[in-house]
């Protein structure tokens, strides 16, 4: 039987696919590199040829999952036909409606044995998404819609809150519970972005997104 030769990219993706499956089923803490290699029928040396450690595998799993969301965010936040306020409204409604099913993608983070992965998602979310949210804030400032003195800090705080306290993939909130948290944040974010009272009400944001998206 002829030996099947796979490219480095194919092999890396196979390892990541198996790791993601096992992290979801068993949790990171209870998954060993041996579990991953046995699941694929490959040698330990093959895994270590592509990844330095199990932690490195986990970091790549998280990065790969976030990339799809990051591309979608960039597609929306780089649209020239939307102002900064309209983009901000989209982010809030995106978190509620979950068009890319990111809640399900990251539901495995609720597993008690995935604490390290939760930390990785948190850090990579801030690192990957902050620059495009900062650009959104700068745009809103230039348009005289926002009045933000420190865009970097506001972007980081905004992402930390909207993608963790509100995010059902971590806390398993119901839709009503998510809405309650977004409503609770309304006045805080209106103040942070320098908006008028009521501009971040759920009904207003839904109307904007329905019209523009």
TrEMBL record:
InterPro entries to which the protein is assigned, alphabetical: DNA-bd_HTH_TetR-type_CS, Homeodomain-like_sf, HTH-type_Tx_Regulator, HTH_TetR, TetR/AcrR_C
Start-end of DNA-binding region: 32-51
SUPFAM superfamilies: Homeodomain-like
Keywords: DNA-binding, Repressor
Highest taxon listed in the record's lineage: Bacteria
One Pfam match: TetR_N
Gene3D superfamilies noted in UniProt: Tetracycline Repressor, domain 2
Signal peptide: none
Keyword Phosphoprotein carried by entry: no
Name under which the protein is recorded: TetR family transcriptional regulator
Entry-linked PANTHER family: ACREF/ENVCD OPERON REPRESSOR-RELATED (PTHR43479), ACREF_ENVCD OPERON REPRESSOR-RELATED (PTHR43479:SF11)
Taxonomic source organism: Lysinibacillus alkalisoli
Residue ranges annotated for the HTH tetR-type domain, each copy included: 9-69
GO molecular function, one term: DNA binding
């Amino acid at each position: 039987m002829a030996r099947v030769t796979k490219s480095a990219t194919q092999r890396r993706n196979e390892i990541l696919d198996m790791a993601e499956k096992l992290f979801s089923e068993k949790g990171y803490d209870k998954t060993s590199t041996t579990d991953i290699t046995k699941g694929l029928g490959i040698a330990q040396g093959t895994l270590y040829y592509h990844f330095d450690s199990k932690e490195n595998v986990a970091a790549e799993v998280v990065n790969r999952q976030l990339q799809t969301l990051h591309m979608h965010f960039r597609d929306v936040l780089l649209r020239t036909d939307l102002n900064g306020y309209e983009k901000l409204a989209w982010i809030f409604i995106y978190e509620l409606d979950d068009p890319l099913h990111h809640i399900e993608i990251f539901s495995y983070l609720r597993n008690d044995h995935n604490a390290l992965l939760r930390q990785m998602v948190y850090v990579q979310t801030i690192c990957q998404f902050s620059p495009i949210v900062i650009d959104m804030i700068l745009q809103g400032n230039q348009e005289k819609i926002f009045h933000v003195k420190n865009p970097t800090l506001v972007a980081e705080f905004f992402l930390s809150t909207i993608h963790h306290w509100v995010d059902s993939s971590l806390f398993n909130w119901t839709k009503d519970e998510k809405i309650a948290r977004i409503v609770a944040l309304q006045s805080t974010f209106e103040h942070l972005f320098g908006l008028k009272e009521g501009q971040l009400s759920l009904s207003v944001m839904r109307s904007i997104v329905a019209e523009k998206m």
